[in-house]
Design goal:
The complex is a heterodimer of chains A (about 350) and B (about 450). With about 350 residues, chain A is mostly helical. Chain A has 13 helices and 2 strands. At the A-B interface, α2, α3, α4, α5 and α13 of A face α3, α4 and α14 of B.
């Protein structure tokens, strides 16, 4: 039962990163790819009807995490106190950047929110990457299952690391580059003309860096968490993950240079999903490793809610998920196709 | 450690108070927009559609603020109240996760469709998307109330070996009688805000002789809905909640009424200042025996006073609790008076020319917000010193690893951020009101 909920939470978080990832990425390339007012409006329209729904995946995943693993929620949220609060501020700024920009047709007003939107997107991508880096690297958990991490200590990976050290900063950069390419491909799919071409070129230019960082991050992970390989040794099916990672990377560059943006975007989604599945697979059954003493690590067993609650949850979760998928299919069909500017509404 | 507790309490109190300014309008306006859309469909009158679109624009701005200030609420369960989360997550994780799965997905999916999809949808389908947004926002409200109701009146749980509370009956949690009274009371409170805001904007147009046709629709829909919600707020919902309080939290009732001495035939204090050290009310104006009657339906019934409970179980801030409660009830009574008179004038066909009444409606705008806030303060202060009534003290629930200094840092950050958000909100809404119902919908 705990394993099932581990999978569910992992899948929801992955869905969040893949979905909100493209609108974060659209924000990252926004100032560079979209030069004219019309192009900027096109980018915003391409994410306008869906970004809020994408972000709901974060809330729903957070809620599900709280429900299934309350101890993990309590421990990690209080331990990552400062960066989480900053993530909240960035999410707020980004949301009003997107939503309030269009209300006043004035270059100063719009210029301000353009920068807010882009900068908050960049920082969020880095924060999310660093957060994942922290979870993989481990945190200084005490025997009571709590910890508090300062923003940084000496930038080294030790028993008492900060939120930011070389490993987590690297993870942040990986996330930034990955989401840049992901968002660029999305914009390339959803728009036409110069904007679409420029976005595709950004994805192509980011690719070598993405390949390099993927390899570096895998090696670095092995270096700081050698036991991350244990699950791969036990269950060789897990070796499919790196194959999918590298394969989808290959498809991205091939499709992007051949003007098959849709295929490239799909491959990019697959790449992100495979990276995250790989991380979850390596961690299982630990959900928050302790850098202090492995005995203090939080696992799915010592952080899960009671059995009855988990069983009941399956029933409503399946119902809720079916409904949510229904809405999503419906909304994406309503707003399918390339974004155009003429006419009212999206 | 004392001060860390205070910082975490202020942190939650500040962010949730600011947050709830927006959902109450979201939940209050959503059914009214459905009414406008339905009237537009039925009467085939474009004026109603314009009215609906106007309120949808304000709804959209308000909704964004509700969402962005709502995310921190879910986070704070873990960040600032981690010991509480560890204790109660096995139960209230259910309702909070269900909010995400059932309400947020529904709301966010159809809001985009409703705000920007009018051209792509048939009028009927567009009306249905408004219904979906309405349902989503009201479902969201239910799950939050069910969570709070569990903290007020824990049911459907058992204690696990490590002391934490774990769910043992899903239906007991969802059908918690406390939740249903509180939900009804809270939603009609939100309805009052929506109705007063709509009537107030309508009155503004009529007084300024602008957009008269739309203004009349706003006033009409606003006062009719306002009248219904104001009355329901008092009876049966307010009354039902009061009696549940008498049954389950008698010490809270005693503190709200500042009844220091338990007595048969207890009086109802209308005005007066609680003097806690001397255990009396200064300058009281009372209705004799009224409290006994309202609580137990008998003039001579004994009502428990604070003296019947150990002082450490008294809610910590009796004066603030007392004032919150009295402000809520006082304003609620005034709302009924305003709306009954307004509906009477509407019925006689005199409302749109009764400028004094339009002025009253215009100026009443802030008061539902104050009443709703005071109501929530009554509920949450009244629960003290408990975080989960009878199970966990507030002093045991906050994040022990997050120091007062870190908490203060983010509290100040939120204060700054919310000041900016509040100014932006007022600025944008004022602009929409100035542009009026005939302005073209601005999309991205």
């Amino acid at each position: 039962m705990e394993t099932l909920w581990f999978i569910i939470v992992a899948v929801m978080l992955t869905a969040y990163v893949v979905l909100d990832g493209f609108d974060l990425g659209a924000g990252i390339i926004y100032l560079f790819a979209a030069r004219t007012g019309d192009e900027r409006r096109m980018v915003l329209r391409s994410i306008g009807p869906v970004w809020d729904g994408n972000e709901v995946w974060l809330l729903a995943a957070g809620g599900t995490l709280y429900f299934a693993f309350p101890q993990l929620y309590a421990s990690s949220f209080s331990g990552f106190y400062l960066p989480l609060m900053m993530v909240l501020w960035l999410l707020m700024l980004r949301a009003i950047g997107i939503e309030f920009r269009a209300h006043i047709d004035d270059p100063v007003w719009q210029g301000f929110f353009d920068v807010v939107f882009c900068v908050s997107s960049v920082l969020l991508a880095i924060f999310f990457g660093a957060a994942l880096g922290n979870v993989i690297r481990g945190v200084p958990l005490g025997p009571d299952g709590y910890f508090f991490e300062p923003l940084w200590t000496d930038f080294r990976v030790g028993p008492h690391p900060g939120i930011l050290d070389w490993y987590t900063v690297m993870a942040g950069v990986v996330a930034l580059v990955t989401l840049t390419a992901h968002g660029a491909l999305y914009v390339a799919v959803k728009t036409e003309g110069d904007l679409s071409r420029r976005a595709r070129r950004i994805a192509v230019m980011a690719w070598p860096l993405q390949l390099l960082l993927t390899c570096v991050s895998l090696i670095a992970t092995y270096y700081i968490q050698p036991q991350a390989m244990d699950n791969y040794k036990t269950y060789s099916a897990g070796l499919l993950v790196p194959v999918v990672v590298l394969g989808s990377l290959g498809v991205i560059i091939w499709a992007a240079t051949k003007n098959k943006e849709k295929l490239a975007f799909t491959a990019s989604s697959l790449y992100i999903a495979a990276m995250l599945v790989g991380a979850a697979f390596a961690l299982y059954p630990v959900v928050l490793p302790a850098s202090t003493d492995p005995a203090y690590s939080l696992t799915i067993y010592n952080s899960a809610a009671g059995h009855h609650g988990l069983v009941v949850g399956i029933v409503w979760w399946i119902l809720g998920m079916l409904l949510a998928l229904g809405y999503f299919v419906f909304i994406y069909r309503m707003f399918r196709g390339k974004v155009r500017l003429e006419g009212q509404g999206y | 450690m004392e001060s860390a507790l205070l910082v975490h309490r202020l942190h939650f109190a500040f962010t949730v108070t600011f947050h709830y300014l927006f959902p109450q309008l979201t939940m209050g306006l959503a059914p009214l927009i459905v009414v406008l859309k339905t009237l537009g469909l039925r009467r085939n009158d474009e004026t109603y559609n314009q009215a609906a679109r106007f309120w949808a624009r304000i709804f959209g701005i308000n909704f964004v603020l509700g969402v962005v200030t709502g995310i921190p609420m879910e986070f704070q369960f873990g960040t600032n109240w981690s010991h509480f989360s560890r204790f109660a997550g096995g139960v209230i994780g259910q309702t909070l996760a269900m909010e995400g799965m059932f309400a947020f997905f529904l709301e966010s999916a159809f809001l985009g469709l409703f705000l920007y999809g009018e051209k792509r949808l048939s009028p009927k389908a567009h009306c249905w998307s408004a219904v979906a947004v309405f349902l989503g926002s009201w479902l969201s409200g239910f799950f939050i109330i069910a969570t709070d109701a569990w903290m007020q009146h824990p049911v459907g749980y058992e204690r696990a070996a490590d002391g934490s509370a774990q769910l043992n009956s899903f239906w007991a949690l969802v059908l918690n009688p406390w939740a249903w009274w509180q939900y009804a009371h809270n939603m009609s409170g939100a309805g009052i805000t929506g109705a007063f805001v709509m009537a107030s904007v309508g009155a503004f147009y009529l007084l300024g002789r602008k957009h008269v046709e739309h203004g009349r629709i706003f006033v009409k829909v606003g006062v009719v809905a306002g009248c219904v919600f104001s009355i329901v707020q008092l009876f049966p919902t307010g009354d039902g909640q009061g009696r549940m309080l008498a049954q389950n939290q008698p010490v809270t009732l005693a503190a709200m009424e500042a009844l220091f001495t338990g007595q048969p035939g207890a009086p109802l204090v209308l005005i007066g200042q609680p003097n806690v050290p001397e255990k009396k009310i200064d300058n009281p104006i009372v209705v004799p025996k009224m409290l006994s009657f309202l609580t137990y339906r008998r003039w001579e019934a004994h009502v428990h006073g604070l003296d019947e409970f150990p002082q450490e179980l008294w809610p910590g801030t009796i004066p603030l609790l007392y004032y919150s409660y009295h402000i809520m009830v006082g304003l609620g009574t005034i709302f009924i008076a305003i709306m009954v008179v307004a509906v009477f004038l509407l019925w006689r066909g005199k409302l749109f020319d009764a400028r004094w009444m339009l002025w009253v409606l215009l100026l009443s705008l802030p008061f539902p917000y104050i009443a709703n806030t005071a109501g929530w303060m009554t509920a949450e202060l009244g629960r003290q010193p408990w975080l989960v009534y009878g199970l966990m003290l507030t002093a045991d629930g906050y994040s022990k690893t997050v120091s007062a200094g870190n908490g203060m840092f983010t509290l100040l950050g939120f204060m700054g951020m919310y000041t900016v958000l509040g100014i932006l909100f007022l600025f944008l809404v004022r602009r929409e009101i100035e542009h009026g119902p005939l302005a073209a919908t601005s999309a991205h």
